[in-house]
Amino acid sequence: MSNRQYDLIVIGSGPAGEKGAAQAAYFGKKVALIEREPVLGGAAANTGTLPSKTLRETALYLSGFRQRGLYGVNMSFKEQVTARDFLFRERQVQQAEQRRISANLKRHRVDLLKGHAAFVDGHTVRLENRDAPPVDLTADYILIATGSRPFRPEVFPFHDARVYDSDTILNLHDIPKEMLVVGGGVIGCEYACMFAALGIRVTLLEGRDRLLTFLDAEVAQLLTRCMIEMGVDVRFNETVTAVAAAPAQLTATLASGARLGADTILVAAGRSGNTDTLNLPAAGLAAGKRGTIDVNAHYQTVVPHIYAAGDVVGFPALAATSMEQARVAMVHAFDLKYKTKVAPILPYGIYTIPECSMAGETENGLAQKGVPCIAGVAHYDTNARGQIIGARHGFLKLLFAPDTMKLLGVHAIGEQATELVHTGLVALHAGATADLFIETCFNYPTLGELYKYATYDALGRRAKLRGESQAPFDPAAEK
User: CA–CA distance from 63 to each of 55, 95, 189, 370, 418 (Å)?
Assistant: First the structure.
């Protein structure tokens, strides 16, 4: 059996694997990247991040959803949307991303090896491929970036072609008339919105008493209201205890005793780390709950020369953070004197309809810490750009420290919320106060102006709480 020596072996070509490999190779390290799937990119390129966001845009386009608030007319493009229509653009974006990843690895002279990887010992990984004899690869450092897969609760008959998870939903054969979405997390909410936009009757089950508990409560409340207005039947405190599969229909029995019929079921019950076939014990490692690997602040495992990054280490399991985790890991491994930590404040983007995004603290989180705050809110429907695009719903909320007016948190829901949040994110990193937004001249008409008026609102509320006769400005005149 042949043996190859590297400075670094990376297992997995998703966001963490690609960026970790490129980071080390950029600084002259000899790198091998192993991918077991026939395509590059992991879940981000093939089943998760990019495909789901592309499908969202496709649903908005094919349904004419964005045009419904304009000119008082229905601008629907098609009466009947087919699965081929729905998935066409997703396939194009997916293939373009796969080509980009391949080109990036080639540009950095990373050896791309196809096959299954498993540990032989702490420094050796065995590569097995049906078309070639096994090869042992040895390296000073190893980065585990194997990603995750959907968790499949046993209660659901996944052998039935009508029962999907968030990966297999991309193989949808026909657009169903009605769909049951189980799980009101990020993935469940995103898919419930996009299918509802296509005119499908969607029922969304959430085991808790609200959607997306990490979001600002008012954002989550408005999102729920918007989903209900779209026709989504949102049911809280409900779980599925059994599923009966008949030729005509699937029937789910709920813990409450209720029964729901559906043409299709999408199960969004979280994800599990892809570690079960890595033979982790041979390297002195063990997976935790749902296959995740514990790491320290440098993304080292309990074996110091073995690192892990991305979904396989658990929360937050975002493509953007996965890339940064891998870069930090490789800088630490090779002492590159470059990026030493992942940014302490991370943005979160939820591509529902409407979009939601946040960075920094929430009001509830600050209250639990005993930290006071002043909130300022500006609504899309009072913003000139919001009026132009026909945004009936949406707002930007800013949280400030009452004494210094230092920005503490940014929360947005509405069109382009995941873009809008970045202005606040940069301000949070800079430790900015309300003065930044008051003094900044924003383009008109833009959604960016919401920052100025949310800040005015917060200053006005603070003045009222202090019993001041008037704020040091006139928000009404500004508006």
Answer: 12, 24, 18, 46, 22
In terms of Cα–Cα distance, which of 409, 375, 414 is closest to 394? 414
306: part of which helix (H) or strand (E)?
strand 306-308
Domains 3-150+272-334 and 354-467 alike in fold: no
Residue 198 pLDDT? 84
Sheet strand arrangement including 407-413: 347-350, 356-360, 407-413, 395-400, 374-379
Percent of the chain clearing pLDDT 90 (strictly above): 76
Domain 3-150+272-334: top CATH class: alpha beta
195 Cβ neighbours under 8 A, 6+ residues apart: 59, 179, 181, 202
Q: Under 8 Å CB-to-CB from 447, ≥6 apart: which residues?
A: 380, 383, 385, 386, 396, 414, 415, 416, 420
> 180-212 burial, b if ≥16 CB within 10 A, otherwise e?
bbbbbbbbbbbbbbbbbbbbbbbbbbbeeebbb
Rounded CA gap, 411 and 349, in Å? 10
Q: What ranges do the domains of the chain cover?
A: 3-150+272-334, 163-269, 354-467
Q: Kindly report the pTM of this predicted structure.
A: 0.89
The answer for residues whose C-beta is within 8 angstroms of residue 55's C-beta and 6 or more apart is: 86, 87, 90, 170, 194
CATH architecture classification, 163-269 = 3-Layer(bba) Sandwich (3.50)
Residue 224, H or E segment: helix 217-229
Domain 354-467 has CATH 3.40.50.1480: no
